[in-house]
Design brief:
Strand content: 15-25%
CATH architecture of the largest domain: 3-Layer(aba) Sandwich
CATH superfamily of the largest domain: P-loop containing nucleotide triphosphate hydrolases
Structural class: alpha/beta
Number of helices: 12
Number of strands: 12
Helix content: 25-40%
Distance between the termini: 40 Å
Strand order of the largest sheet: 3-2-4-1-5-6-7
CATH topology of the largest domain: Rossmann fold
Length: 353
């Protein structure tokens, strides 16, 4: 059976920065063919127009599908599942599917829909990414423009739940595999640290909380989480069973270079390892100690002709032998990715020990 196509669900309130994050992802897709499902409704598909204008080979018009009949978690059966089937039946199947929900959407019903028989054998939820407006949340407002959120709520005739923003926010955090604190540049360092700490304490164990400016997240951090979120819905408790908000993207008046100043990566090389299981455990311990987001690469194992591929998302480490080493040097080579400020020397020393 072919491998399931991974899908990333991007949720968050109107103005949090979902569209900016997705557009940045498309501009830095590293050759991945990405299909988008955008949950727009109302008179104009603003987000769809923005994304269709990105001009990249990874986001042609054929790769973008718009759901405009109302908030996605209220139209799963009649709108979302048929759209997914249509996408999965194409000859040129995407490498990855990204779903941008309405800001009013509860992510849980959408994730639950991936267990529907029509799509369950062909696609899996790589991860749920909740984007928050760091400035608004730190001020207790949850959304940059509450009036715009209320207007969006009023426009959706299919919306079948009325929920306070605070409870909607709790549901989005409860379902998240990664929380992106966007617009972190509008906060002081202490404010950012306090908000990240609060979000970590409010979310499940293992949920990664990262800060970003203008949605500039490395693709290797955003995609490839490999969670299978539809398989652990019990852990993603819902405050209630229906709730929503829409996301037109807020663009700050000031502009930033769209680079990854808030993230860094570096390569660690070392000689052969002798015990793969012990090394994987050491990698997991180092990741926890240094709050590393991703670690990937391969290791040479003494006495083994095949190289050991290592992929780590947070403290979860997967490893498998994939192919023989070539004629070159047998060494272990790992790429470490994390928020800026990693203690490179300590990480390098620990991995080389």
């Amino acid at each position: 059976m072919p491998a399931k196509i991974p899908a990333t669900v991007v949720t968050g309130f109107l103005g949090a920065g979902k569209t900016t994050l997705i557009r940045h992802m498309l501009e830095n897709a590293q050759g991945k063919r990405i299909a988008l499902i955008i949950n727009e409704f109302g008179d104009l598909g603003v987000d769809g127009d923005i994304l269709k204008g990105c001009g990249d080979e990874t986001c042609t018009e054929d790769d973008i599908m718009e759901l405009s009949n109302g908030c996605i978690c209220c139209t799963v059966a009649e709108d979302f599942v048929p759209t997914m089937q249509k996408l999965l039946e194409r000859e040129n199947a995407p490498d990855h599917i990204v779903i941008e929900t309405s800001g009013l959407a509860l992510p849980q019903p959408l994730v639950r829909a991936f267990n529907w028989p029509e799509i369950s054998t062909r696609v899996t939820v790589d991860g749920v990414v909740t984007v928050v407006d760091g400035k608004a949340v730190s001020e207790g407002r949850f959304a940059h423009n509450v009036a715009a959120v209320d207007a969006q709520r009023a426009m959706d005739e299919n919306l079948d739940h009325e929920t306070p923003l605070s409870e909607l926010f709790e549901d989005q955090v409860a379902c998240a595999d990664m929380i992106v604190v966007n617009k972190s540049d509008l906060l002081g360092a202490d404010e950012v640290d306090a908000l990240i700490g609060k979000l970590r304490s409010d979310s499940r164990g293992g949920v990664q909380v990262v800060k970003a400016t203008m949605g500039a997240l490395p693709v290797d951090v955003l995609l490839g989480q490999g969670i299978g979120s539809e398989n652990d819905l019990e852990a993603r408790h819902e405050v209630h069973h229906h709730d929503h908000d829409d996301d037109d993207d807020h663009h700050d008046d000031h502009h930033h270079d769209h680079d990854h100043d808030e993230f860094e990566s570096f390569v660690v090389t070392r000689p052969e390892i002798t015990d793969p299981a012990a090394f994987a455990q050491r990698v997991a311990d180092i990741i926890r100690e240094h709050d590393i987001l991703r670690l990937k690469g391969f290791a040479a194992v003494a006495g083994k002709p095949m190289r050991l591929t290592i992929q780590a998302v947070g403290p979860r480490v997967d490893s498998y032998f994939d192919q023989p080493f070539g004629a070159g040097l047998r060494e272990t080579r790992l790429v470490v990715i994390g928020q800026a400020g990693l203690d490179r020397a300590a990480i390098q020393a620990a991995l080389a020990a």
